[in-house]
């Protein structure tokens, strides 16, 4: 399994991915799920992937091949805006499907892939997309400024309650790490090291790209203190005092 | 969808279920998912169900029929302990499977059912079981003193962080309601009214059985103040101050 989350904020974008892959609980590996494509000052794109690793790795290789080819084919360096970038990634994913889906089906394996693509190209505002296995995609809006892929449910309530478009990048990084912590606690197949990637609006380059492992002091602090803080918040709420008076239905 | 949660504590047991059923988003209804069987002073059992409503309703009808029959057949009044009660419910579920599974399969419908059965019989300690669609079951232990069925992921992290065997019944009711709130916020197919049922150890009867709807003041308070408390807890944790120093990988 995988957990990736990204938020599109006024100040920029935050991307966080875990790195655990598994083919059964006895076959667990570490693979990074974040890919960065940037030409500082001109464009910066971040791609996070979940699903079948053979599919998503092939996709990234094909994207890189097209970027390196210099043969006039469309690629992530040549697309004029983020919408076209999402369309291009979706098309490439369809190409992977054409190549592999039938063979996978013969082995009873579903063609699973989900992608988050965000970034900024030229003078356009930063944009964030969720790309599905079929190559279609949706875009984040002010109402829903974040996307999750993979094991999304454990870490969703806290994001729903906190995130706003005006949330700062520091706060959003904290929020993503808390959301990841809730997920890691509940799903063994999501694990460190984490990739935290931050873009600032109009900088057109990566502001930070940090690998967070089990020894990271800030993440360890989050893990301890968030549990404590939740326990404290829980204690602060009054208990029901009407239980003994409960009517017998 | 459905969300039900139950906790087995030193002080007794707490059961909470929602009441929303849906056959597509345009076909939403309210059905209670908690059934109570009690002979005060002798035995008290609480059954919560999720899955295909036609299956779980049939199961409850068959359990009640057997209890009413007085024909010497095993039933929930006659079983000598909670383990045998869980086995009996599992057997009844297998009988539903024998009757219906093939016909459902012909319509491409899976035989889905998950049950939580808890209670106390005679001098035995209270016990809590999670019964699967195949009629097999597991029992709660001090390490894992709670079970969830249905849409369990959104409301799991807060329970994992808070519940202990020594948690009081009032606190456990509050915890179950907070967990339900997180679930309702994230999944439209889980909704009020809620059934909250409380047993106290060795009372051998229902201590409280309360229906909680959208107008319930305590639940409304939980909904508002828990969001506030989470926001406050979030604000209290320090933001990362190392983002700008992040190495470029």
TrEMBL record, chains A, B:
Signal peptide (residue range): none
Pfam family, one: Proteasome
InterPro entries cross-referenced by the UniProt entry: Ntn_hydrolases_N (IPR029055), Proteasome_sua/b (IPR001353), UCP009120_prtse (IPR016545)
Protein name, per record: Peptidase
Provenance organism: Zoogloea oryzae
Lineage: Bacteria, Pseudomonadati, Pseudomonadota, Betaproteobacteria, Rhodocyclales
């Amino acid at each position: 399994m995988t957990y990736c989350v990204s938020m599109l904020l006024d100040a920029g974008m935050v991307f966080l991915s875990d790195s655990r892959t598994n083919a059964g609980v006895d076959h667990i590996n570490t693979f990074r799920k974040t890919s960065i494509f940037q030409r500082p000052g001109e464009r910066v794109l971040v791609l996070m992937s979940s699903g079948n690793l053979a599919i998503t790795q092939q996709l990234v290789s094909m994207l890189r091949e097209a970027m390196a080819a210099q043969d006039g084919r469309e690629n992530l360096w040549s697309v004029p805006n983020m919408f076209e970038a999402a369309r291009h990634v979706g098309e490439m994913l369809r190409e992977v499907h054409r190549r592999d889906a039938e063979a996978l089906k013969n082995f009873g394996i579903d063609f699973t892939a989900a992608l988050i693509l965000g970034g900024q190209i030229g003078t356009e505002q930063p944009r964030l997309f969720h790309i599905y296995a079929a190559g279609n995609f949706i875009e984040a809006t002010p109402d829903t400024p974040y996307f999750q892929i993979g094991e999304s449910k454990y870490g969703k309530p806290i994001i729903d309650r906190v995130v706003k478009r005006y949330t700062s990048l520091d706060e959003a990084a904290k929020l993503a790490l808390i959301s990841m912590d809730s997920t890691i606690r509940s799903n063994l197949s999501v694990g460190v090291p984490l990739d935290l990637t931050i873009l600032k609006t109009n900088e057109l380059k990566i502001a930070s790209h940090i690998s967070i492992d089990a020894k990271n002091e800030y993440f360890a602090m989050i893990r301890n203190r968030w549990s404590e803080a939740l326990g404290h918040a829980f204690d602060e709420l009054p208990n029901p005092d009407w239980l003994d008076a409960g009517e017998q239905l």
